[in-house]
Amino acid sequence: MQYLKSFEQIVAQQLARVEKMKNDTNFIDYHSLDKIIIGVIGGDGIGPAITAHAKRILENLLVDEVEAGKVELRTINGLTIENRAAEKAAIPTDVLEEIKKCHVLLKGPTTTPRKGDQWGNIESANVAMRKELDLFANVRPVKVPELGIDWTFFRENTECLYAMGSQGVHISDDLAIDFRVITNPGTERIARQAFEYAKANGKKRVSIVTKANIVKATDGKFLEICKKIGEEYPDIEVDDWYIDIMTAKLIDEKRRSQFEVFILPNLYGDILTDEAAEFQGGVGTAGSANLGKHYAMFEAVHGSAPRMVEEGRDIYADPCSVIRAAAMLLSHIGYQKQADALFSALDICTVTEKKLVITGKSDGATGAEFADYILDTIRR
Ligand code: IPM
Ligand code: MG
Fold this sequence. Notes:
Blueprint: H1 2-23, E1 36-41, H2 47-61, H3 63-67, E2 71-76, H4 81-87, H5 93-100, E3 104-107, H6 125-132, E4 137-144, E5 149-156, E6 169-172, E7 175-177, H7 184-200, E8 205-210, H8 216-230, E9 237-242, H9 243-249, E10 261-264, H10 266-280, E11 287-291, E12 296-300, H11 306-310, H12 320-332, H13 336-352, H14 367-379
Parallel strand pairs: 1-2, 1-3, 3-12, 5-10, 8-9, 8-10
Antiparallel strand pairs: 4-5, 4-11, 6-7, 11-12
Helix pairs in contact: 2-12, 2-14, 7-8, 12-13, 13-14
The structure holds 3-isopropylmalic acid and magnesium ion.
């Protein structure tokens, strides 16, 4: 009965986490800091190349703040799959220490090992970072003006099947069991984040997505708590959907433009945001904010494309997703003017003007040329 012991440990860990969440009430206030440290993590594959372009853009936009010592841009090396595999750790200890010295992070893609591949059974660096820094809100905007789509997803980022994705148990040769975690404080904080966002941005509708008709204990709790928080926002209409019909409604031309803000448990959020990003041109075009009370991390929502590096094509990799993440970062730490300038330059360069095109090959622009194009557009 070894697995009963493991289950006891898991329960104790999660109860301790609940207590920690309950006592963790205040958000970091960036204005009160003497200096905001922005850590830039290259990651794997094309990551170092594309994040370097985003960093250059940040350096340009924040040149005065850096000079005045109010902002520091710090490159963090070593979050590579080779180091992680060698240390058998999702995040090498010394890298995690460096990360924790920053206030906000811009992160390139990191390779997620699969069962049976050369890297062994290490946890995804993304998932580990979300847990280590308690980045509970994964905010993913998707906008396609010509289709009337303007969605913002609030994906819970630390619980659900992800909380113990690497701690499932093989009970016998024939039986494996994983665990799904939903907690009151974990749900309250994501729900509040979503409703506060809706209120601040004039959104009229928040849609809660679960499968509470089947997954009764955990999704039932998630739905109930989100609805309860929603009662505090009488001007916002709240509706709830099951994940299966919601995946269908996103492609329903008559319905989809009515959705505004979504709240979802982790795994449904993972899946639905990939579907949503496809309307905008695929996950490669999306930016993603991972917000916590003490840290925030902004990342590109695409893979590390190791084949591009093997073929020497990383200089042609598209930096726009991580540059968009950089714009979200600027907005989050209070540099809204610079963020708006960058968002608008991204729109001009990738949608309306398109003077340069990235193809990922030598017939297209390089990432460096594209970053210059964005900087020139900002200065116009
Ligand atoms: C995402 C990704 C990650 C996730 C992977 C890379 C671990 O798909 O950010 O959506 O499953 O959350
Ligand atoms: Mg995903």
